[in-house]
Each structure stands twice: as structure tokens, then as C-alpha cells.
Amino acid sequence: MASLWFSLLQVLPLVTPLASSPPAVSPSDAATAITHPSPGFPMVINTWGGPFTIATDAAYKSLLTSSGSGSSGPKSTNKTTPTTRATAVAALDAVQLGCAACEAAQCDGSVGFGGSPDERCETTLDALLMDGGTLKTGAVAALRRVRDAVGVARAVLDHTAHSLLAGDQATAFAVENGFVEEEGGLGTADSARACREWRERDRCQPNYRIDVTPDPKTACGPYSPVSGASDEEETEKRSLHRDQENGKVGSAAQKKKRYQASHDTISMIALDGAGGMAAGTSTNGASHKVPGRVGDGPIAGSGSYVDGEVGGCGATGDGDIMMRFLPCYQAVESMRRGLAPGEAAEDAVRRMTRRYPGVATGLVVVNAKGEHAGAASGWTFTYAFRGGGMEATQVVTVPPIDGAEDSAVEI
Question: Where is composition skewed (Basic and acidic residues) in this entry (predicted)?
């Protein structure tokens, strides 16, 4: 036995850890993803501008209340002490409050109740909260009949040893914890009308079905799996589906609808400057999704991710593709290895576009110093931030990584 351990000790140092694999883009190549300086602390940053800035402001003001005033830099190291645990709770509170503000305001119709109905015209919600000090997460997926999805995610984090609850069982947990169950569901008159038009006028286009009958490109369901196709037909179908995912087929209007259906997530990171960091995500998912579908939003490392020793990331876009890559985990780990936020964001996006060139993605990345950046593909992405003594939230416009223009800050 001793000789076996001696042999292992001789071999193990020769094994290269998986974490040391090279980035998809070298720092010198990251020309389109500009790293912006820190605005000071406390700081909040999240996906999308426009109506989503209501969340930025709500979270930032929460941090001001808990920390007293803005500052130009961190006050302590990111170690889990009683002091920093209190600030981590403040950061979690800020992210929860920001996401809840977006849920209540139905930001862009794509967060909270009354938006993105599924094939059966029901709205369900996904949400995630993550503590940057402990790396503990709480999340809900396919939550039915309860509006405060991020609040239920916080209850999962605070009152269970689990990370994720889903479906009707998540709803039951929410009710046990004092949340109100909406008997009529989470739909509204507007969402019911939109779903009816999608079914009757648009003949259920676009949708997410493949290899089913009737033909999902021309008819609504119910659908049944197609079986007995020849090898040539199966190869052709797989090729077409791959091209659809890559954005190579479909009219401009169809592609626009697909991208708009992906514009459905707020992901936020809060840094209080005293060692507390947190991240979170809230979404009502992709419009016309197959009932029961869960996207990347409630998945730690995909919808958002934070490590108080390094930084955090929030994501939006085509979640069914993005969750295959855990882009936010990738971006944070790239920063751990020395990449700047812009380099880390672009690296994570390029890993996805190498396999799926037409995918719509948007990442916002911030390090523990408050330096921040975004990267995108398939569309022009925006993110919002506010920090230090800023009087108003600012919005950064991020062109797709293949574009010629640089990201620019605008109020």
C-alpha cells in the first residue's frame, strides 16, 4: 500500500488541473469589451437599462441606508467575519430589493407577473440569490401563482439547506413561509390577449418544439414525437435545428422575435465596499416556452454568480444555450486567474459563439474593486450601474463582440 501511495505522489504533480485551461480569448484580443473604472462604493450593477434602472436605484439606495454614505474603495478584506457577514446580508437585502422592484414594476413585461406566458398561457417565475461570502444560493424555478419570486428564493437561502426548489412544491413552500398564493395565477388581461394572438393569429410562431407532429413551424399542438424517420431525414432535422440555434435560418422578423423573447432577465450584483457582495436574478422566462421549462436564470453560475474574493457576473440572453456554458462562473473564475472584467466577459461570450455563432447573449461583469464591463453577441446589450456618490444611474451600451463600435457610457 505504501508503494502505491508513493507511485501516486510521483504521478499527481504531473497532472494539470482543469482550471488552468487557457482562456478562449487572450487579454490582448479583448478589444471590444472595455473595462470601466470603479465609481466607488457602495455599488450596484445589473443587466439592461431603460425600465430596469428602477432596480438599480432601489438597490443602491438600500445600500446607502445600510452603509451610511458612498466611498471610493473597499473598507476591509472579503473574509467571512461577523462584521462582513452583516454587510453580506446588507448586499443580499439590496439585490433582493432591486429584483423585487423590477418584479413589481413588471420591467419590460419580462420580469414578474403578467409576462412571457408559456404555451398554455400561464406565467411562471424563476429567481436566484447568491451570497458572495458563503457562496450559498437560494433559488426557485417554474414557480406558480406567487408573485414575489426573489423573496421565495431568499426564503430558500435563509430557511433551508437546499439550493433550488421548483414547481408546485416551490409554491407550497412559499405559502408555508407566508407568501400569498394568487388563485387566478400570475397572468393578466394583457398576457392572456398576447397568448391568444400568438395561438390564433400567429399560429403558435415562434415556438420551441422540434421533431414533433404536427409540424411546429406551421401548426399549434398538442404535439407528439416523430418516430421512424430515415437516417437522412434525421440528419437533415438535426442540421436545421443546429442552424436555428446558430441564428443562420429564419426571417429577420423571426430572429427579432427570438431575441426579444430572450430579453427577459434582470441579473444584479451588489458590492457594499466593506466586504459584502451578493448577486441575483429574476425572470418570467422565455415567451411561449414549453410548460415546465426552466432557463438559466435560477442556475448559479449561469444566470448570475458571485464570489466576494473575486467579483460577480450577471447574464441575460438565450438561456437554453447559455446554461450549457455557465458563463458567469466562467467569467468570475477568469478574473480569479487575472483577467480584467472586460477580458473575462468577452472570453465567456466567445466560448459560446464559437459553438453557436448566432446566439444572443449579454454579460455584465464586475470585480471586487468595482471595475466593470459587459460583453454581448447577437444583439446590442445594455447594463446599468450606480456607485459611490453618483447622483443618477448610468447605462452602458455594449455592441456585439463582432461589431466595430466601442462600448460607451450614457446617462
Answer: 235-246
pLDDT at 344 over 90: yes
Indicate the average pLDDT of the chain.
83
Amino acid at 132: G
Q: How many CB atoms lie within 10 A of CB 51?
A: 16
The secondary structure of residue 50, as a DSSP letter, is G
Helix ranges (DSSP H) in 33-186: 53-67, 82-105, 149-159, 167-176
- Measured CA to CA, the distance from residue 400 to residue 402 in angstroms comes to 5
Per-residue pLDDT, 235: 52
| Per-residue confidence (pLDDT) for residue 111, from 0 to 100 | 85
What's the start-to-end Cα distance of the chain, in Å? 67
Joined together, the cell numbers standing for residue 154 give 431568499
Q: Are the C-beta atoms of residues 357 and 400 closer than 8 Å to each other? A: no
Which DSSP letter does residue 274 get? S
Q: How far is CA 382 from CA 164, 300, 313, in A?
A: 28, 22, 14
Concerning whether 265 is annotated as a catalytic residue, the answer is yes
* pLDDT tens-digit series, residues 359-384: 999 999 999 999 999 999 999 999 99
The pLDDT value recorded for residue 114 is 83
The three cell numbers locating residue 395: 447605462
Q: Please, which residues have CB within 8 angstroms of residue 395's CB and are 6 or more apart in sequence?
A: 49, 50, 53, 382, 383, 384, 409, 410, 411
CA 223 to chain centre: 30
User: In which residue are the cell numbers 398576447 written?
Assistant: 194
User: What's the angle, vertex CA 107, arms to CA 105 and CA 50, rounded to 5?
Assistant: 120
The catalytically annotated residue of 35, 47, 84, 265 is: 265
Query: Containing H/E element for 215?
Result: none
Domains (range + CATH), the chain: 32-184+262-410 (3.60.20.30), 189-259 (no CATH)
What letter would DSSP give residue 37? P
Is 50 exceeded by the pLDDT of residue 149? yes
Q: Which residues are within 8 A (CB) of 125 and not within 5 positions of it... i.e. 6 or more apart? A: 103, 112, 113, 140, 142, 143, 146, 147, 149, 186, 282, 283, 284, 285
Query: Helices then strands (H, E): number in the chain?
Result: 11, 15
Rounded distance, CA 197 to CA 201, Å?
5
Orientation angle between helical segments 327-336 and 341-355, nearest 10 degrees: 140
